[in-house]
């Protein structure tokens, strides 16, 4: 796995946030590339976290924040891996989620707000920053899991 860096960008706030989020999304997907379903479903850590679950969870995170909370639409996915779900299924779901998420982001202002559970509200800017940190955090988890599984390293 070769090391990659985000493309430097001097653009507006929305474009910069989406570009950095996309880099993290693609970095994550590179982490799971080439794994078979058994390796992706297994976990080399005591918490039981697997690369399949992380892939699925990232779809859920974008859907819960952008599709459900921000746009008020029904969720397409639960935060659990199905017994027959494959890594390829999870990657397709994640890529499909990117398209819907980006469509939502491009159709709203960064200052547009939505309520959150427990009270209060957040704007789209906050949601994008949260998804950026969530994706980067889980990409780091994927780095470690993949290295433990087969020694592959890099971003």
Task: Kindly list the characteristics that best describe this protein.
155 residues, mainly alpha, Four Helix Bundle (Hemerythrin (Met), subunit A), 5 helices, 59% helix
Describe the model.
- The chain contains five helices and two strands.
- The protein is mainly alpha-helical.
- It has one domain: dinb family like domain (Four Helix Bundle (Hemerythrin (Met), subunit A)).
- Strands 1-2 form a two-stranded antiparallel ribbon.
- A hairpin with a 5-residue loop joins strand 1 and strand 2 (121-123).
- Helix 1 runs antiparallel to helix 4 (87-106).
- The longest helix is centred in the C-terminal third of the chain and has 27 residues, at 124-150.
- The N and C termini lie close together (7 Å).
Over all CA atoms, what is the radius of gyration? 16 Å
Instruction: Give the mean pLDDT.
Output: 94
Number of domains: 1
Number of helices: 5
Shape: globular
- List the strand order in the largest sheet: 1-2
CATH C-level category: Mainly Alpha
CATH topology: Four Helix Bundle (Hemerythrin (Met), subunit A)
**Second rung of CATH, namely the architecture:** Up-down Bundle
Strand content: under 5%
Structural class: mainly alpha
Order of helices and strands: HHHHEEH
Q: Give the number of DSSP strands.
A: 2
CATH level 4 superfamily = dinb family like domain
Helix content: 55-70%
Low-confidence parts: none
| Terminal-residue CA separation | 7 Å
Biggest sheet layout: 2 strands, antiparallel
């Amino acid at each position: 796995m070769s090391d990659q860096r985000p493309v430097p960008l001097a653009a507006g706030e929305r474009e910069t946030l989406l570009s950095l989020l996309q880099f993290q999304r693609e970095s994550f997907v590179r982490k799971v590339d080439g794994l078979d379903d058994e390796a992706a479903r297994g976990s080399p850590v005591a918490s039981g976290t697997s690369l399949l679950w992380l892939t699925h969870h990232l779809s859920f995170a974008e859907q819960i924040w952008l599709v459900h909370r921000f746009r008020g639409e029904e969720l397409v996915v639960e935060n659990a891996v199905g017994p027959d779900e494959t890594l390829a299924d999870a990657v397709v779901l994640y890529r499909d989620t990117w398209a819907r998420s980006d469509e939502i982001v491009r159709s709203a202002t960064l200052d547009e707000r939505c309520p959150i559970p427990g009270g209060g509200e957040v704007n789209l800017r906050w949601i994008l920053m949260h998804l950026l940190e969530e994706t980067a955090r889980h990409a780091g988890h994927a780095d470690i899991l993949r290295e433990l599984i087969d020694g592959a390293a890099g971003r």
